[in-house]
Amino acid sequence: MAVYTTLFSATLDELEERFPSVAAPLSVSRLVSRTNPFTKLPTPVEVWEPEFGLPRHQVSLFSQDNMLPLRPVYSQDDEYGRYLASLVPLRLRSLPHIGTKNVTFLEAEEFLGLEETKPEKFVRCLPGEGSVDVASVGLADVLRRTELESIFERFPHAREGFPLVWLKNLLAASAKTQRYLCAWYRA
User: Where are the domains of the chain?
Assistant: First the structure.
């Protein structure tokens, strides 16, 4: 089953402007049951997700507003690429982004042999507007501090197996402030 994904990067202020709830991870993880987005079956997972308070706002990701769209960091110039681009929510188009499918941070972590699963932030969407994953501290650290060629020398299978260059380019979109690497999954 295809899971359509928008990869994007955002500062903390940009996340808070686009999503109703953004929070730091818990200091100690807990075990909960979650639905696997691919199989739709419940599965136990270790989470760092805090309890969210009241949402900051109720603005939809699909709202038309004054946020100017940016060109995607990568786009496929054909009919399918245009279809993927059309699935990107309007408010995410104003951030560095890539419309794709079946791309997860867990996969990137596995390619790089990372065991860290604690995300840098937690983001909650409005009901019915999908979900967001924020890259783990470990993945973001590797991508921020390591040149791609060094990564590919250590993990040659990652060169063809996963679009790490996309993730690296998203994090480097604006070096002035810390950006969080995120993935939005269509509901």
Answer: 4-185
